[in-house]
Specification:
Elements lengths: L1 H13 L1 H24 L6 H31 L2 H4 L6 H34 L10 H26 L2 H18 L4 H4 L3 H14 L1 H28 L5
Length: 237
Amino acid sequence: MIQQLKHDVFYVIYNRKYRLLILLTILLTAGLTIYTAVNVTVEEDILLHSFENFRQFFWLLCAYLIADLLSTDYHSQTFKNIIPKSFNRNNYYLSKIMVATILGVFILVTHVITSWIVIGSVAAGIELNYFNFPYFFLGAVLSLFLFSALLSFVITLFGKETVTISTALGLVILQILVEGFDPAISAHFPTMYVVSLDNLVSESMLTALISIGSYIICTLLLFIGTIKIFHKQDLFI
């Protein structure tokens, strides 16, 4: 497991496109935060409005990075080099899902820190509110785990990079488009979960626990399904 984690972490660190995603996050955050500060009517909600403007970009970035990280060995046909180093094939996708989730959370942290710095520089002295951080990051972790597990299932089932990236971006865009139709349902969407989990807990702890439990169960089922398919595949042809 450690060997696979090290491989995936170093792949992310030394891959130029992931550094560009972080740079893009910083630039997008700075631009959206300044735009929000100029146009928002309630000064105390600058950071909240800034993230709401950034949230769709966050999920598009995460959809791409997760799909790319999961499909890299299919694209480059490097399973002959990777799989023999792992004692258990389960470790392969478990590592990918963990690294993808951590990278998604890192993008979120980058946005939060950048927005704080920008507002602190251009509008010092303003009292700033933000989300409840424990639920903010718990919502991000649960939704990123679920989305990573889902895309793991897709790439294992089809074995094609284009199908995985198309599915990832398509699902995110679809969720964004239908978020406003029924707020009670869309609050449980992965794209909304980072901001809606706090509200779910405040409104009904039972509903929140059922929602969290559903996320965990679905993630486990998708991971188990992925591993069952993965174990049956001949990856060395």
